[in-house]
Write a structure and sequence with these properties.
Chain lengths: 295, 331
């Protein structure tokens, strides 16, 4: 059994609880021990340095120090949390001045950070730590014949000087995982583009048109489902899909899964266990297709 | 080794629509994509059009899409592209209209650079004295001149002044894809560069106020593409983030973007978490809430509602102390 400190991020604990549930389901099936960290704070949503650069360092330095105390690496299920924690980790490891400054604050709350924690997104934790061979052994539902559009999003790939999981120009980790699950990864241009979430409350048309065009491209290429490793992308792609359709003036109806839900379904998870009823766009057609494949 | 170049071709004077033309090129050690294109132009097809000049990654002329990513052709090795993609696919930069083949119309890009006033603002006290004249015996230059490293220390401008205006960031910018009027990363990095210049005499904060208008600093979607694909190692998104921080610290908070970030900071300061409902309400105000109502109602029907009152994280006092230490409690 492999252990991680589990950092679900805010959305998976609030409007996106289905992601948290699916992650726990997958962890159980793959013998992953998720150590809860109830003291962890929000990472700042990828924008907190625009309020105060040091606040980003302090609150995330604290999360890293809390994880370091347990002796295990952090497992994330959100791209933006992954990037923010990784950015702060890099800054603290490479800049002694910033590390000392952060440790001065941490000392006051009984913590200290040495720079020993790694941040792993579940997509790449499964590839690197669990292994696709082990994953394949646990598959209960075949995804054969299901066209799956991987939507990487931004912060799991860029900047590649900080998040170093994959080749930023031509990433393959997501496709490999879909292949390992027996599904057919769809190739389309916008798989590594932005969903626009960061400005969804600031400039809705700009933001949702980005999500809308990505969905449209996958839909036109006959995707059965789009899958994302980030709950913020999921909000843009699923919750706002009706708004996105209006923004680009096209008909859109593509179901969107969180990555742990796709893995969960392949490992035998049911419609209810994956929390699909909470989605805006119905997952019933794709689930019916998967059911036909049942061994 | 022989390899294939598949180039976008379009001459609006004779072609109805764009097409791709393929060329087979023989490489030589260290061959760049620009070398390959120049070889095609010299030996195979003189009509293939592209901008180029210095061949040393300093003029920024030969920026184009190479295998889907905006790069300088002169800085891109053929061998690494072939290894990864098996061929060279060249396209014009994105987000700008095509003039011909790989040449784009840069006017819209430079209009945006002009918009941020890329020069030092303000009148100096003794304008007559500062007017250009031959230095007299023993006279020193009045305008302070900073050595590059000194300038960096003064301003924190580590990289923004190195921009060569190649448009790679602009071509990759998701914000511009979504809104063609968005100023984009190069112009906003330049805005930061000037707003931090100690010689700039922007007494009334006009740079930050103008930058905070719609289509300015708050429309960045944080996709990180500008930093990732800048051939000179500049991070416009970090410059934009510094402009955000500077605007908020100077109480220039009339824009939705500023309200958004302040609300997130406030929410973390109160609960340790990001309160989705509160942040949406604070950012968009009543108009925003009304606009989002149908979407929120639909999500609510599916049970996708965030909790109205968030549970505080454990040891919330730690976070409160961080705000106190950084003197952020009042903000």
């Amino acid at each position: 059994m492999i252990s991680y400190v589990y950092y679900p991020g805010c959305v998976a604990q609030e409007s996106g609880k289905e992601l948290d549930n699916a992650t726990k389901f997958v962890a159980k099936k793959l013998d992953i021990n998720l150590i809860p960290m109830p003291e962890a704070s929000c990472c700042g949503g990828g924008v907190i340095d625009g309020f105060d650069e040091n606040l980003k360092l302090f609150i995330n330095g604290r999360t890293l120090a809390l994880a370091e105390k347990t002796g295990f690496d952090i497992l994330t299920v959100c791209n933006t949390c992954t990037l923010t924690l990784s950015e702060v980790n890099e800054e603290l490891i490479n800049n002694k001045g910033l590390l000392d400054k952060t440790n001065e604050y941490l000392a006051k709350i009984g913590l200290r950070y040495e720079g020993r924690v790694k941040i792993k997104h579940i997509l790449y934790a499964i590839r690197d730590d669990i292994g696709f061979d082990n994953l394949k052994k646990k598959i209960a539902n075949s995804l054969r014949g299901v066209s799956i559009a991987p939507f990487y999003g931004c912060h799991i790939l860029r900047p590649s000087s900080v998040v170093k999981f994959d080749d930023v120009e031509n990433p393959q980790g997501f496709e490999e995982l879909i292949g390992a699950l027996g599904g057919e990864p769809l190739s389309y241009v916008r798989r590594t583009k932005c969903c626009g979430f960061q400005t969804i409350l600031i400039n809705e048309t700009t933001s949702t048109s980005l999500a809308g065009n990505a969905i449209l491209e996958a839909q036109e290429k006959k995707a059965d489902v789009m899958v994302t490793p980030c709950p913020l992308c999921h909000l843009s792609l699923d919750t706002y899909q009706t708004v996105a359709a209006k923004s680009i003036n096209k008909k859109l109806s593509l179901p969107i899964m969180h990555l742990p839900q796709l893995i969960g379904v392949a490992l035998g998870g049911s419609y209810a266990e994956m929390g699909f009823s909470r989605h805006n766009i119905s997952l019933r057609p794709v689930m019916a297709k998967i059911k036909q494949n049942r061994f | 080794m022989e390899f294939k170049v598949r180039s976008y071709r379009f001459n609006p004077e004779i072609d109805d629509k764009p097409y791709y033309k393929e060329y087979i090129v023989q490489d030589f050690p260290g061959m760049t994509v620009l070398n390959a294109l120049m070889k095609i132009k010299a030996e195979t097809d003189g009509t293939l059009s592209f901008r180029r000049s210095c061949r040393s990654a300093i003029c920024g002329s030969c920026a184009m899409k190479i295998n889907g990513i905006s790069k300088l052709a002169c800085k891109t090795q053929v061998s690494s592209e072939i290894e990864k993609f098996g061929m060279i696919k060249s396209n014009p930069l994105f987000n700008m209209p095509v003039v011909r083949d790989l040449i784009v119309d840069q006017e819209i890009f430079f209009d945006k650079i002009k918009k941020i006033k890329p020069y030092l603002l303000g009148q100096r006290d003794n304008e007559e004295y500062h007017r250009f004249h031959v230095l007299r015996e023993g006279e020193k230059i009045a305008q302070p001149v900073y050595h590059k490293s000194e300038f960096q220390n003064l301003t924190g401008n580590d990289d923004a002044p190195n921009c060569i205006l190649c448009e790679c960031c602009y071509s990759e910018c998701g914000g511009v894809v979504g809104n063609k009027n968005y100023l984009g990363p190069a112009a906003l990095a330049k805005l930061y560069r000037y707003s931090e210049d100690p010689r700039d005499n922007d007494k009334n904060g006009s740079r930050l106020v103008n930058g905070s208008q719609p289509e300015g600093i708050w429309d960045c979607i944080h996709c990180q593409a500008c930093e990732e694909f800048c051939p000179k190692g500049i991070s416009p998104v970090k410059a934009i983030t510094k402009l955000h921080e500077k605007a908020i610290k100077n109480s220039i908070t009339f824009s939705k973007g500023a309200k958004h970030i302040i609300s997130i900071a406030k929410s973390i300061g109160e609960t340790g978490r990001l309160d989705e409902v509160k942040v949406a309400a604070d950012t968009g105000g009543i108009a925003g809430l009304i606009n989002d109502l149908p979407m929120a109602f639909g999500a609510g029907l599916k049970g996708k509602i965030p909790p109205i009152r968030l549970k505080l994280i454990k040891d919330m006092d730690d976070i409160r102390l961080a705000y106190k230490e950084l003197d952020l409690e009042e903000k």
